[in-house]
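Async update (no meeting this week)

Hi team, since we skipped the sync, here's where things stand on the single-chain job. The sequence we agreed to prioritize is pasted below, unchanged from the tracker. I ran it this morning and attached the output directly underneath so nobody has to dig for it. Comments welcome in thread, and please keep replies under the output.
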Amino acid sequence: MEKYDVRKFILFPILGISFIGFLVVLFSKFAGFWLTGYYTGERYSCLFCEYGTFIDIASIVIILLSILGQIIVVLNEILPKQLIKIDLSLVGLLFAIGTIIFSIVGLVGFGIVYSDYEWWPEAGFYASIITGVFNGLLFAVKFVSKFVKKN
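Output:
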């Protein structure tokens, strides 16, 4: 009976979650606020929106680069000819943790700038948090499984 490396199967959910998270963060709103006064209405922050602050736009760019790093780590392990021969599970885990940290930094920066208004997180924030948490857990399982004794 042919034995399969279970650690390789963990990579496909990471790739799928990363790809979906990358697209959602890239094309959706990160946070929003309710503008009061003469021009009353909802305003949003995203990569290409008018009301984005420097902190949250920089965080979105770093989040996208971090998710792209996770995709590169997974593709390096999936492809038959690996460019980097060592196990990059820890690097992927650090990219996932960075995704979570910069998601929170971006939202806090947005909240501080627009603290006079009613503000809320949007789909881009939630997608980056979900991507970071799920991929972080899967990279952690892959990293720890390296130390488990095989029968």
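Quick observations from my side:
Residues 54-78 form the longest helix (25 residues).
The chain has a mean pLDDT of 90.
Reply here if anything looks off.
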